[in-house]
Amino acid sequence: xxxxxxxxxxxxxxxxxxxxxxxxxxxxxxxxxxxxxxxxxxxxxxxxxxxxxxxxxxxxxxxxxxxxxxxxxxxxxxxxxxxxxxxxxxxxxxxxxxxxxxxxxxxxxxxxxxxxxxxxxxxxxxxxxxxxxxxxxxxxxxxxxxxxxxxxxxxxxxxxxxxxxxxxxxxxxxxxxxxxxxxxxxxxxxxxxxxxxxxxxxxxxxxxxxxxxxxxxxxxxxxxxxxxxxxxxxxxxxxxxxxxxxxxxxxxxxxxxxxxxxxxxxxxxxxxxxxxxxxxxxxxxxxxxxxxxxxxxxxxxxxxxxxxxxxxxxxxxxxxxxxxxxxxx
Length: 329
Ligand SMILES: NC(=O)c1ccc[n+]([C@@H]2O[C@H](COP(=O)([O-])OP(=O)(O)OC[C@H]3O[C@@H](n4cnc5c(N)ncnc54)[C@H](OP(=O)(O)O)[C@@H]3O)[C@@H](O)[C@H]2O)c1
Description:
Number of helices: 12
Low-confidence stretches: none
Bound molecules: NADP nicotinamide-adenine-dinucleotide phosphate
Largest sheet: 5 strands, parallel
Mean pLDDT: 97
Helix content: 25-40%
């Protein structure tokens, strides 16, 4: 049966992937985009409308009533709000409950990690999940590997620089494996998962590969034919940087750089020092594995991504964000 979906974040990275997948199945989905008033005049929103997406302009942090109205005929709400804005979803949960939405997919889409002090973004997402649980709202929480698009190291010739966002180092001995996914595949998994009754009120994980940083460097060397210098960050260094930026962002919440560093180092801590982002740990936490549920859905592997990358055919994530060299102290 056709589902009417309201997608929050359709102009973003994850939301763009979800949008493409939903629009690719017009027999399965009617797609609306939730857009905040401040963004209603953006050219990206005009592009959505031109694609046949119904645009609903509403402030998710404004009065509840207009939000409930915006959700009235919606079967599935999918949120892909940015990492900084997780708590803005709280009122959306209340509105979805009132509007009797059949499935709420909150903004998870992060690597697998436990709540409770490992990753600040994961903990903010947890606040939203608990609001969902308290409301008895039907849900699916979908986590994913770390994107291929932000996982590859640069090569000496500089021919992959067009797609790079920041330098990539190795952590500890570089041998801890971690799940990866191509950003373009997130939407394909979301489309499949939201049509599947087995995934209702479950945690799902979707990924293509589970590779160590050493393997990521090795595969990039293989694809490019270039030798890549490795910089190993000792575990103690990651721990001390994490403590520093956690403290800095807590004492100065408006310091965006401190927050960015905190979020970034949390990922490194969880993925490479704790070793959370693996299929085995996801199973332990009770996740269903999308690869087991949908063996016919073949994700884009990291190797395939690298072939496109070295041919100059990749698309840079966050096109408007300049290359960033994070502080090492
Ligand atoms: N697994 C990974 O490797 C990985 C990597 C990056 C991010 N993530 C996760 O993915 C999630 C999505 O991040 P992203 O980087 O894809 O997001 P993004 O590209 O920054 O896009 C965020 C979207 O949310 C919309 N938005 C923000 N506040 C809104 C509001 N109040 N009302 C309505 N719309 C609003 C933005 O719309 P406007 O046009 O109005 O700004 C934009 O469309 C994050 O929560 C993050 O934790 C995971």
